[in-house]
Predict the 3D structure of the following.
Amino acid sequence: MRYYIADLHFFHAAMNDCMDHRGFGSVEEMNEYMVAKWNGKVRNRDDVIIIGDLSWGSAKDTNMLLGRLNGRLYLIQGNHDRFLGKKDLDMSRFGWIKPYEELYDNKRKVVLCHYPIMCYNGQYRLDDQGAPKTYMLYGHVHDTQDQRLLEQFQEMTRNTVITDAKGNVRHIPCNMINCFCKYSDYEPLTLDEWIVCDSRRRAEHTVAQQTGKASLF
């Protein structure tokens, strides 16, 4: 199996007190919970692509963490991966480390970048049934006002009607998924699981807005 997840921020105590307000009693408690969720899902033969910001810890701390996580690991570099470039980092735990990647997952193209790309490669491609052939998976924005703005952009894009090269009138596809770890309760998910998770979360947010329980920021 192949899984994806973003913005775990192991060893980053501030995630409990500000920005994410994760609610753990300590950074140690947060780390242990996330390791348990990871290893409860991932087996050693599985691939996990981390879409940036894995660890705020030192190379030594991060080495210890990498030794505990199941699976074959791949990293899309994030702005808070401070351990990268340290000479004592155990690079052997990563199949690769890249700032950007495009790959295929069950015949669907996946564009991977820590930072959201609003006009991503392959965005307009659909199969014969009209289903998306390309997804853009990102992180970085967590569940902040930036994510709300991205959701507004996506909704506006999906509601925009165009005439394509074949003369067909259709809506513009926009399939960007924020793989923020908190959205999945810190569990790596497959592409299909992220599609379901994202759809459910957006539906719940729409209901909350309609009932006055959510605001833009």
About this structure: The CA atoms of residues 106 and 191 lie 9 Å apart.
